[in-house]
Predict the 3D structure of the following.
Amino acid sequence: MKVRIKWLGQMGFEAETGSGHIVAIDGPPEHGGQNSAARPMEMVLVGLGGCSAFDVVKILKKARQPIKKCEVVLEAERADAIPAVFTRIHLHYIISGLDLNAKQVKRAVELSVEKYCSVAVMLRDNVEISYDHEVQEAGNIKPNS
């Protein structure tokens, strides 16, 4: 896996992923940025949430659960000192579907955070990671609506 980071001036950067995607990165004005893109530490949370959501959806689909939506809301706390590393991250999963099996949803979330999500496994020795979930009946909504 490879990523190239290019400085664009001031505190703006462009990340080009090995899969050919471009992601903008910027800093806040108080650090010379223009607040035009996500911060690097936000991108860590994006990686964690995206990795885990991917796992949960994959596990539930494999279990033939009628999942319609998967949302993960992450909240993090950082150290006051430099480096301002994450000290705590909480993931809240909102899973919607038609007659989902609550035990299978719970197990999918647990498996993701505790075993399969590479980002969570990488972070957990240095960051307190907690999680919970809720299951919502989807009714007639379309996936990703």
Notes: Strands lie at 3-9, 12-17, 22-25, 67-78, 86-97, 128-137. The chain has two domains: 1-38, 40-137.
